[in-house]
Structure of Gamma-glutamyl phosphate reductase:
Amino acid sequence: MSESHTTDVEGSTDELARRAERAALRLANADEATRNEALRSIADEIREREAEILAANAVDVEEAEAMLADGEYTQALVDRLKLDATKVEEIASMVESVAEQDDPLGETLSARELDEDLELYRVAVPIGVVATVFESRPDALVQIAALALKSGNAVVLKGGSEASESNRVLHEAIVEATADLPDGWAALIEAHEEVDRLLELDDRVDLVMPRGSSEFVSYIQETTQIPVLGHTEGICHVYVDEAADLEMAEEVAFDAKVQYPAVCNAVETLLVHESVADDFLPGLVARYEEAGVELRGDERTREVVDVDPATDDDWDTEYGDLELSIRVVDDTYAAVEHVNHHGSKHTESILTEDAETAEAFMTGVDAASVFHNASTRFADGYRYGLGAEVGISTGKIHARGPVGLEGLTTYKYYLEGDGHLVASYSGEDAVPFTHRELDGAEWTPGRR
């Protein structure tokens, strides 16, 4: 890369970040009605541009399928990339559902009297400027932008090159629909050099949210001083216990793999208690094979059903496709040990009718979401009632699991006094603090 091009990228990215920072400060003060009206305008604009969106997506898909034929892309990536009329309507409806969510801003999280007429309030506020780098799904761009807008944040978006045409049109629709909002609140970058420069701007960008492999998220964390909220792969498990309702377990295990295998909350490894393996596995394996699932199993599994042998790498692989590994385990504790060793802290599920066993698994597993008698596919912001999600955080700090509006807020302390002085609370004649909780109290600006 030439020196002049480097300067151009740095200059344009710096200006983009400055505009986003200014926009964030103004957007934080936009009232809920303004933000909701803008979201509904985005939904309308997406519907009006359906033909344009689908035409752009067709270009992306055609190029991706050529890369698939050359072995450079996977079928899962191509599947995530595709849009149709139904999907466009779902995207628009998702934006409207975000508008219908409760306002995450201005909520008084706690209130405490420090002394008479001296009251401290902790209030929810936007984070500021959030940057996100995500994979091939074009709908992710709209989800992230919608959640950022509802939560009063400016956003810098970087989608995958495989979805570049789709992302451009969707971004244009968002910008056109929100022309009355602060300029620069939603920016799109495309070059890797722009991402590298953005990661240096820790004085302007408040949070980075990468969505991708563990290696990619680790690279972002090692490259920047900006706080990182990572969405890594989903190596999810379903464990079928000896006390499981086997008919239910079969339906759940089938749904978790086959309903939509290209996503991060699809199951990749099935664990089965040794006492039910003979009764459970043959019927489920037959259904999997009929659905086109490529199966691998450990030695104990292959004593029961005819599947390919699993390798050590299989237990640590996110297939994102119709592929599944199966392991027979001694008991629940062996299942927990396997999950904690090989899982990605995303989503795990146990099938059992024994409450104590369910508790042992659910409390013992280290994951953002742990389910009892339910498909891992429920790990989703929309299904959780969050409206949408910017990603699923597999870390433990700030936000965990599907990250919706609450995960895009932080808080600020507001202190309301009446000429109070710290000197009054120091020395031999110090006035004591009351430190009394004010249950149900709400902060009102300039209330005195």
Notes: Residues 1-7 have pLDDT under 50 and may be disordered. The chain has 14 helices and 17 strands. The longest helix spans residues 3-27. The chain has two domains: 13-103+126-223, 236-385.
